[in-house]
Structures are given as C-alpha cells and as structure tokens.
Automatic annotation (TrEMBL):
Name of the protein in its database record: EamA-like transporter family protein
Pfam family membership, one: EamA
Residues forming coiled coils: none
Cell compartment(s), UniProt: Membrane
Keywords assigned: Membrane, Transmembrane, Transmembrane helix
Superkingdom of origin: Bacteria
Membrane topology, record value: Multi-pass membrane protein
Cellular component terms per the entry's GO annotation: membrane
Residues annotated as transmembrane: 24-48, 60-81, 87-109, 116-137, 149-169, 181-199, 211-235, 244-264, 270-287
Biological source species: Hymenobacter arizonensis (Siccationidurans arizonensis)
Family: Belongs to the EamA transporter family.
Domain EamA, first and last residues per copy: 4-132, 152-287
UniProt xrefs under PANTHER family: EAMA DOMAIN-CONTAINING PROTEIN, INNER MEMBRANE TRANSPORTER
Length: 291
C-alpha cells in the first residue's frame, strides 16, 4: 500500500510544476501562491470544521509550523522560482527534500547521521551546483520569457521547509488522522492567504479582465485540488505508515514526471542538467540505503 501511495504522489506532484508554469502566464507568483493555498483550504474547510474541535491545544503550534514552512511559504517560493526557471528543472530540484528531511531529522529530532548519509547530502548539494551553475536555467521558455539559474535558490529554501514539515508531522502530530492534519493545517494558513489574495493583489481584476485568465485559474485550481489538498492527505497518510525518509522518497520519480511534461512543452534540457540530476538522485539513493 505504501508503494502505491508513493507512485500516486509522484505522479501528482510531478505534474504540479507544469501547472504552475501555465498559471504564471497570467497571474503573478504571489497571486498563484495565495490562490493555491486559498482554494485548497476552501476545499477542505468542511473537514477542518469537523476536526478542529478534536485537536489538542498543544498541537496547534506544530500544525501552524508545518503549515507555514511546509505549505504556505513553499507555494510562493516555487511559483517565484518558476518565473525564470524551467518547470522540469524545478521538479528535479524538488528531490532535495530528502536531503533536508534527513538534515532536519538529525539536527532536531535525533536521527542518526552516518558517514554515508553525509556523503549523500554532499552529493545532493553538488548535483544542485552542477545543474544550475553549469547547466543554466533551462532556457528562456518561462512565463516571463527570461531565464535565471539563481532562482533555483528559492526552491532550495522551499525544500528546507519541506524537510522541517515532514519531521514535524512524523514526530509531533502522530495519532491525528491524515485528513485532520491536512484540513486543520490548511485552515490555519488559508485565512491569511485568502485575505492577502483578495486585498493585496490584482487577482480579481485579472480574473475579470485579463485574456486567458480563467484558463490560467483552471490550472491553478487543479494544482490546489490535486497537488495541495489531495496530495497532502495522501502524503500525511504515507508519513504515518512509514518513516519520514521513505515518505519523501517520491522525489525519485517526481523529476521524471516533471521533465516529461517540460519536454512536451518545449523546455530545454542539456547534458549538465542530466549530470546534475544523476548526482542528486545518487545522493538521495545513498541517503535511503545508508544505515
């Protein structure tokens, strides 16, 4: 069952990067991030209202931490990165989630950090340097028409947040159902995201007047529904059924799905990108196999 969930998650999340790219054709990164979180929170609002009264007070702070660093902030960072970074490369860099899951687990939750795991972490970071500094941004086929490999740093920061969130859910929110964790987590961050979207951005004006706005919104709504609401429930279930590291190992397949969608959309992918991806995934493999 765990492997089935892993494959489903890899497919859903691997598709999320091309959906962000399509949404960014009309909406800004801030609008996309806020819309993604708001729609997901509204979809699960009935479940949140059902479960929020059953949550122990001591757990709300951990739900808030996981929600902010593992969902809210990454939603903006990934969108901002993809304004100048090919969607396929964004999907490959997402594999660094495993690296930071291990690092956070070792630093804050007592997970053992062996020499082999240090090697895996090092390879992951080296692969990132090879991919971005030698391979570049993946061309100018981005929503802004410009490429900038340094925007990969935003994904690096986002995967750090993912690493924190995975460990918090595993070690601090055990016993809660996956739906309760996801719905209440989104309830806590959904309100601020929706308020910002409606008051602090031009989202409503663009939706009413910009050419192609409803199509772009459709991509974002699909992203929110599948990659945020549904995938988060499945991921939280996977975390509870396995280890934090196993749950994050969907990153093996996410790059393949993301690159396939990118290639279909005409994105460039050179030998340096391939070399960087191989080095990153080799590091991830070593992390998982190391004892």
């Amino acid at each position: 069952m765990a492997w089935v969930l892993l494959l489903v998650l890899a497919t859903i999340w691997g598709t999320s990067f091309i959906l962000m790219k399509k949404g960014l054709v009309v909406f800004s990164a801030m609008e996309l991030g806020a819309t993604r979180v708001s729609v997901a929170a509204l979809l699960l609002l009935p479940f949140a209202l059902r479960h929020v009264g059953t949550v122990e007070r001591s757990r709300f702070k951990w739900l808030a931490v996981s929600g902010v660093v593992g969902t809210l902030i990454p939603a903006f960072l990934f969108a901002y990165a993809e304004t100048k970074l090919a969607s396929g490369l964004a999907g490959v860099l997402n594999a660094l989630t495993v690296v930071f899951t291990l690092l956070v687990g070792a630093l804050l939750f007592g997970q053992r950090l062996t020499a082999l795991r240090v090697l895996g972490i090092t390879l992951g970071l080296v692969g990132t340097v090879v991919m971005l500094l030698l391979g570049g941004s993946g061309g100018t086929d981005t929503p802004t028409g410009e490429g900038n490999a340094w925007y990969g740093i935003y994904i690096l920061i986002a995967t750090m947040g993912y690493g924190v969130s995975v460990n918090v859910i595993k070690h601090k929110l055990g016993g809660m159902t996956p739906m309760a964790v996801t719905a209440v987590l989104l309830l806590l961050i959904g309100g601020p995201a929706l308020a910002y979207l409606l008051v602090g951005t031009d989202f409503l004006h663009k939706l009413a007047n910009a050419p192609g706005a409803w199509v772009a919104f459709g991509y974002i709504a699909l992203l929110a529904t599948m990659s945020t609401a549904v995938a988060m429930v499945l991921f939280n279930k996977l975390i509870q059924q396995s280890t934090a590291l196993f749950a994050s190992s969907s990153t093996y397949l996410i790059p393949i799905v993301a690159l396939a969608w990118g290639a279909l959309d005409g994105e460039a992918f050179n030998l340096w990108h391939f070399a960087g991806m191989v080095i990153i995934l080799a590091g991830v493999l070593i992390i998982h196999r190391a004892k």
